[in-house]
Amino acid sequence: MPPFSNQTAMELQGSVDSMDVSAMRKENRYAYVTLLTRDPYLPGVCALLYSLKQVNTKYPVICVVTKDVTQKAREEIELFGGVVREVEKFLPFPEDQANNYANALWIDCWTKLEFWEFTEYKKCVYLDADMKVYKNLDHLFEMEGDFLAAQDCYHGGDPEDRVRNHFHDPEKCFYSSSCPDKIRPYFNAGFFVFTPSKDIAKDMKQKAIDKDVTTFTFAEQDFMNDYFQGQWEPRVLPYTYNCIKWFARYHMGKPYNKDDIHVLHYVSEKPWVTGRIDPKDEKAIKSGLCHCAEQYDDWHDMWEEAMQAKANNTLGGTIGADKLVSIPKAQPMVTESAVPVGRIG
Ligand SMILES: [Mn+2]
């Protein structure tokens, strides 16, 4: 079945009943969405919020949390201008069987499928927590299409290699001049523009449950690429909207130009864990991180500024507060030990 249909008006009608109708009349019901499933990623979310604020973002940023996120982390998100919204974790297989799955490392990311439930918003832009925004993104909400994403930097069917060795084969990367045009469209799921829809949410979750996803190395990313196959086009959004940090290593000069970047994506090593990168450091040379030192400096410069603003009490209020539609009350907190898994890329 085609995943998109003209159902939006009907859905909205359904959700109007439980809401302030005057709020629903707002034309621009747009929101950014990000995800936090465990506290160690909190600096990423706060830095993302800070960077969104720096570029004068007009719309609210819904920071989706799951039950393991502490109250303290939730308060910090609000301090940085985000709106906390708790959802149930979604996993298409029993959690205790995760080790039978190639994507065990990234099981928390399946919860992204819940975002299609946010039908009080007409359109949303999802951003991973390990991102820095360099330019205002509000224009994305006005773009046509129910699903937009940017082609990943290299996906040649050797995900194991890609995870372990950051292997990059110009012959297989869409962004290399030597890359054949016939390369398979494959987006990085750290960033996407989407139209919430209860029908799509239900359909996606059911398909994820029904499908054998044991071999899906990149968890929800592989699944979403299957699901949205043919529904998006790699040339619609350039790499600048989800610039994988490795662009600085593999595509310097063409197409990579730092001045063009909208969103930089710190896949794998997180800047809040590594600190600044010394390009002469032996480990940084071995891992290739030495090529991304400037990008990590950018993150840390911003982080220091954000910490200063926090100390000075000048972080400001909720981003896009005047455009918030309706946020269901957060579920009561259940304190449980955090699940020691999470996305590294
Ligand atoms: Mn990421």
From TrEMBL:
GO terms for molecular function: glycosyltransferase activity. InterPro entries: Glyco_trans_8, GNT1/Glycosyltrans_8, Nucleotide-diphossugar_trans. Pfam families: Glyco_transf_8. PANTHER family: GLYCOGENIN SUBFAMILY MEMBER (PTHR11183). This is Hexosyltransferase.
